[in-house]
């Protein structure tokens, strides 16, 4: 939660903010789920913040606030309380493991030092001892000290082994948390945050390797109409279906992401516009070829189509400019009647 909203929620305006959030959700025909409530409180508490601006844009566009849309907004804009908690917990476990191991090592060092002293003492005794009983005493002392050091070593080994396992488990868990934070929960594609980072990285790499790179944006045609007719749950399934086709065609090093409500984006490192145009057309044809059914009633939903636009990066071009050109190409597809792929390079030639 941002500082400003947090302060408001502990001030006399808190109740009026909460009431307005409920009223505005009702006006926008949005269910007052805890997540939506959190989104609306943030939006109204800080209307000029990044979440406020994005929500105003979506509401003005008439975007349907399905569960998927809300989750995506939350992942992108709400403070990551869960993530920081997980990291804090992992940090505490790691600290505990490190202290256990350091204690065990310190103890083992003490034992080794004591053992060294025992050995030194024994060797001095051996030089002077002539009686068999005195020799026996030295040997028995040595045996006892050796047994003790062996036991300490065995304990240290066990502790190290269990700590190694715990640290490996922790590492795996943190890796999962990191993956979750970069993944769109509904479609399992990369989320917008991951995409933005990946776009920067890919632009850098394209410059370093002096290789081409192409960016595509894809949008489901008439998705709002579809959602209004069949409901949000079915709308979410359509998003998953489109994402599954895009994901299958976009194996690494390609990176596919859900970029907005019903908008997707794919980075094609090392690929030229002509190759990408063909790939997008095969995605478009595959998506449109399937007659979908509504799972709950088995009603025929018909086919869904997508429009797409692509732009090949010019050397040194920023990710934002490239995205802008791919978006222009997408809108050209929409203007030309949808269910189309527009190659932005041709758009530029024609201009
Ligand atoms: P899901 O329902 O979790 O299905 C995952 C995958 O299981 C599907 O991947 C498909 O390979 C298989 N599958 C599930 N149900 C059926 C079925 O009735 N027949 C066949 N032959 N295979 C099935 P796929 O096709 O890539 O779809 C991904 C997601 O897209 C699905 O996830 C679902 O959310 C959505 N979707 C796909 N087709 C339809 C559809 O006709 N109606 C609805 N409502 N959603 C669909």
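Sequence proposed for the structure above (351 residues):
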């Amino acid at each position: 939660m941002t500082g400003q909203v947090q302060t408001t929620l502990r001030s006399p305006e808190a109740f009026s903010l909460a009431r307005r959030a409920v009223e505005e959700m009702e006006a926008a025909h949005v269910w007052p789920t805890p997540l939506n409530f959190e989104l609306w409180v943030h939006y109204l508490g800080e209307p000029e913040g990044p979440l406020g601006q994005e929500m105003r844009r979506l509401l003005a566009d008439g975007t349907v606030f399905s569960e998927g849309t809300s989750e995506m907004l939350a992942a992108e804009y709400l403070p990551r309380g869960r993530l920081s908690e997980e990291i804090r917990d992992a940090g505490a476990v790691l600290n505990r493991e490190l202290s256990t191991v350091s204690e065990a090592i310190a103890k083992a060092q003490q034992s080794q030092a004591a053992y060294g002293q025992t050995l030194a003492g024994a060797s001095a005794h051996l030089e002077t001892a002539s009686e068999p009983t005195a020799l026996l005493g030295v040997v028995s002392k040595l045996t006892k000290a050796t047994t003790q050091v062996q036991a300490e070593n065995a304990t240290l080994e066990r502790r190290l082994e269990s700590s190694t396992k715990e640290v490996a488990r922790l590492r795996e868990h943190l890796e999962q948390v990191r993956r979750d934070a970069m993944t769109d929960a509904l479609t399992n594609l990369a989320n917008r945050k991951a995409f933005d980072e990946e776009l920067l990285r890919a632009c850098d790499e394209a410059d370093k390797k002096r290789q081409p790179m192409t960016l595509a944006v894809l949008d489901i045609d008439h998705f709002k109409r579809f959602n209004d007719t069949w409901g949000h749950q079915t709308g979410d399934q359509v998003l998953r279906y489109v994402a599954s086709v895009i994901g299958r065609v976009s194996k690494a090093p390609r990176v596919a992401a859900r970029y907005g409500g019903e908008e997707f984006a794919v980075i094609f490192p090392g690929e030229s516009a002509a190759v990408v145009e063909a790939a997008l057309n095969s995605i478009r044809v595959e998506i449109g070829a399937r007659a979908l059914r509504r799972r709950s009633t088995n009603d025929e939903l018909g086919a869904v189509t997508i429009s797409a636009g692509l732009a090949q990066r010019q050397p040194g071009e920023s990710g934002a400019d490239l995205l802008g050109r791919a978006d222009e190409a997408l809108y050209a597809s929409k203007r030309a009647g949808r269910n189309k792929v527009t190659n932005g390079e041709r758009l530029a030639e024609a201009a």
